[in-house]
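Exercise: predict the fold of this chain.
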Amino acid sequence: MLKTLSAELTICSQVNENGFITIAGLANGEGLAEGNKLELYLKRVPTKYDKIAETTLDEFCYFELVNIQVERNNLSNLYIKVNERMMEKVSLAGN
């Protein structure tokens, strides 16, 4: 679970047979609702982040980011941003 100043994200991740990653979960927080944008970033250098995927929350604030291609050595450099709010590092347990 990621906790930010404005949201709580419950995240589940899976590395698929084809080597691609799926990240899914629920967002909970003040002001979050259906249609809010969720973005996944890869940190390249200390001040440079590249957006690699985005989706929107459904009516239950559920989200899925599927078929994400990231090299294994970059799995510790993933960050999620919800609605232009603070970016938070993603920890993929077991990777």
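Check your answer against the key: The chain has a mean pLDDT of 84.
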